[in-house]
Amino acid sequence: MERYNLVVIGAGSGGLVVAAGGTGLGARVALAEKHPIEYTHEGKPVKAMGGDCLNFGCVPSKALIRAGKAAQHAREASRFAIRGIPDPGPQDIARVMDYVRSAQAHISPHDSIERFSGLGVDVMVGAGRLKSAHEVEIGDKTVWGRNIVIATGSRAMIHPIPGLEEAGYLTNETVFQVKELPASLLIMGGGPIGTEIGQSFSRLGSKVTIVSSTPHICPKEDADIVAVLVKKLRHEGVTVIDEAKATKVEKKDGRKVVTIKGKTGAESTITVDEILVATGRRPNIEGLNLEGVGVKHSAKGIETDAKCRTNIPSIWAIGDVAGSYLFTHWAGYQAGVVLTNTLTPLALASCDYDNIPWITYTEPEIAHVGLSENAAKAKGIEYRKFSADFAHNDRAVCDGDFEDYFAKVLVDRKGLILGATIVHPHAGDVLAELVLAKKWGLPLSKIASTIHAYPSLSEITAALGREYRKTGLTPGRKNLLTKIAGWMR
Amino acid sequence: MERYNLVVIGAGSGGLVVAAGGTGLGARVALAEKHPIEYTHEGKPVKAMGGDCLNFGCVPSKALIRAGKAAQHAREASRFAIRGIPDPGPQDIARVMDYVRSAQAHISPHDSIERFSGLGVDVMVGAGRLKSAHEVEIGDKTVWGRNIVIATGSRAMIHPIPGLEEAGYLTNETVFQVKELPASLLIMGGGPIGTEIGQSFSRLGSKVTIVSSTPHICPKEDADIVAVLVKKLRHEGVTVIDEAKATKVEKKDGRKVVTIKGKTGAESTITVDEILVATGRRPNIEGLNLEGVGVKHSAKGIETDAKCRTNIPSIWAIGDVAGSYLFTHWAGYQAGVVLTNTLTPLALASCDYDNIPWITYTEPEIAHVGLSENAAKAKGIEYRKFSADFAHNDRAVCDGDFEDYFAKVLVDRKGLILGATIVHPHAGDVLAELVLAKKWGLPLSKIASTIHAYPSLSEITAALGREYRKTGLTPGRKNLLTKIAGWMR
């Protein structure tokens, strides 16, 4: 039996980083990927791994979002006094998806079997199945690993709704293959996936309705932040229905009649051409033989400690299948933790759960790190809040991107950042400075005394810092300063 | 005679911050502004100060750039498979300038006489003229200041070119008032002002030629960075002529015939409808009576030390008139230095010249902080360089904004940042994280171990950090790791 330092099951964001990093650090690595996807890049076929991120998630959705922006920005050109640009109208979605595929194809060589084989990884096509604490069966082969890393990701959670299967629906795995733009699209689920794709389809010409079971869409974010996004979505023509659930789907004259039960319990129907189900994710734990080997898990995924270790010391789990944060960058980060813990004699690295940023890629974007106000209140954590509006950020004003947009930050007594959220079309880029400051303990006062280029969106962080500093100028101090100034005059 | 802690001459970016900050800290402040500009905001007239920044510089140029982008992005929508958007063609520049004015008007209340009077500043309309080390004449009034701050800014430098005055030309003070789009526009000067306005007019429908006397436009930036911008400008139809100078202008049939002398000495002519002169800046030192009071100055501006103090201990100078860095944020920063030095008994604050970022607002933007490669070589400073391409940044790929764009960073032996430059449409926002890291001594390795949201442009900084880290994995170390991995297998 071939012996490896690491046997990785699943070649998504987490598994690929473990594999590349492992061989880079001198380890022998086997990597099992169930289902590579073929792209064409520069005329050549590429067998890509990459998991949901490259194939059904981050990458295609961001490219779709970009196309939606191109249509919407043309629609809004008159805001900047540009004439001669008509509303582009409903788009040829098949061509848009060709653009999406071109972005995926551009990235695909980086995640390809060829590249990883070249790095020295033994890539094996097939589903990995645990045989023991150190053995994994891949197809008709069994390999031995000093450590085994499970990184099989997640897939769309489909709740059992009467008639849904019969009527048919899209998920994140099929939506990027649509050939015709649905004139109307109902999205079940108001999380980031549903909201991002919903806004994009709306901008490309679909009549979109988002049905969310939570009090507001993007329920992980604070209500004041989400309100800004919802206002924009509605302004663009997206219908957003909160605290509602689809209870039944019927097919009628080739269309889909969805029964919606609202918060009052009253039912109504919406007839649409297509449905996208984006009501959460479920971990890909089936077929791993977790029970057989005794790996603890629940419906949320495989249970791990902060070192990413399961209850079986030689078996680790990272990314979506481990169920904590479902982000590519979290999976990649956990991959680094596992590399340290498996390739150095002492397993000392632990996940830092406090400094993980995320972005919802709607327009405006919502970018967040650390503690939200909701969470702070729920946990009883003391904080001071400072806000700054983009209406006072001169770059945002010149760019016409200011209305309602703002940033807020929660700090402790010393001005150290506990959490920050920004809602603005470029929130994601602006957040990075705050993440760095939070991670390395730079207080708001140090951000305020760092020169920010004028005019730039990043000045919003300095504005937060100035708000913080103002609190140091108490009436008593101001009084004293006024007296001193009088003496010096 | 009224006695003040601070008498400020000039109400631009520097003067306004001194005035607002001074009153905020309890000081009595007089502020002399020669020429307020009137805007209409929410139906009401606003008498705005703000200097070149609000009236003839940053603000109107960024709004014009935004309008140019709206036209260009519509033109490029087919890159994202969006159909139904024709080339918008030449624009109604008068309407575009209305948009520009609306952005200025939005900001104007913040810089208004009304607001500053409300803050407690004694605003006096008139040119300030030094009478002594503590006295300033403003109109028919003379006021006394414990300290005097000169912040009169700069204006376009007009080199004497035969025929130029007769033919007529635009500067940054008049270009935002044009009523008709010139079919062709020659820009004398390839600095940021000329390049930004040139690209914008080109996008709005003018045939633009930039004539630059330096080896390449934006001469403060490294050649490899500028090459990316020049390629894009040329692709958009802008003619860029380096190492050339206008030597003569003649008027002919209502058009302007400009003679250009190239680097070989050969002369050629270009016939255009309009000329913009953007060949540098000169400090506004006339009329201040610097000679009378004995304030040292040169053609570059008023001489100051790092504390912003002139040779006369009670007189200070900040911003463009002091001639070091001609940026709004530098003026604002120096204002803070002067506030500390004039309102606390010991003048201890000094300017930090090493951590000043700047952005050239073309598309792509060029964003820079600290040492450039050129400067490092010229000064003989040892550095290690790391680069990262946006072609490997998945967000940039999805956004279609990756070709040629890159970031580079220069670090010392410990990985501390000496300088960084980014060329990308959103370079300015991405730079802020590196500025913070440079200012507060966070090495590249700490940036690499900070989680960046995927996919985001800000990941480019982590990519720089990874490049740096790779250098730690020498062949010897890799060998050792491989051996250890073998033992552990």
CATH level 1 class label of the largest domain in chain A: Alpha Beta
Approximate helicity band of chain A: 25-40%
* Whole-number mean pLDDT of chain A: 97
Radius of gyration of chain A, in angstroms, nearest whole number? 25 Å
| N→C terminal distance of chain A | 88 Å
CATH architectural type of the largest domain in chain A: 3-Layer(bba) Sandwich
Count of helical regions of chain A: 16
Shape designation of chain A: globular
CATH topology (level 3) name of the largest domain in chain A: FAD/NAD(P)-binding domain
Whole-number tally of structural domains of chain A: 3
- Proportion of β residues of chain A? 25-35%
Task: Please summarize the sheet with the most strands of chain A.
Answer: 7 strands, mixed
Number of strands of chain A: 25
The unreliable regions of chain A are none
* Largest binding interface between chains: A-B, 106 and 106 residues
Helix and strand content put the structural class of chain A at alpha/beta
The CATH homologous superfamily of the largest domain in chain A is named FAD/NAD(P)-binding domain
* Quaternary form: homodimer
What does this 3D model show about the protein?
Two copies of one chain form a homodimer. The first copy, chain A, is α/β, with parallel strands linked by helices and 489 residues long. Chain A has three domains: 3-156 and 282-343, FAD/NAD(P)-binding domain; 164-280, 3-Layer(bba) Sandwich (FAD/NAD(P)-binding domain), CATH 3.50.50.60; 364-470, FAD/NAD-linked reductase, C-terminal dimerisation domain (Enolase-like, domain 1, 2-Layer Sandwich). Chain A has 16 helices and 25 strands. In chain A, strands 1, 2, 5, 6, 7, 8 and 20 form a seven-stranded mixed β-sheet that branches. Chain A has a five-stranded antiparallel β-sheet with strand order 21-22-25-24-23, with helices on both faces. In chain A, strand 10 (184-188), helix 7 and strand 11 form a beta-alpha-beta unit. In chain A, helix 3 crosses helix 4. The longest helix of chain A is centred in the N-terminal third of the chain and has 18 residues, at 58-75. Chain A is globular. The interface between A and B is large, with 106 and 106 residues.
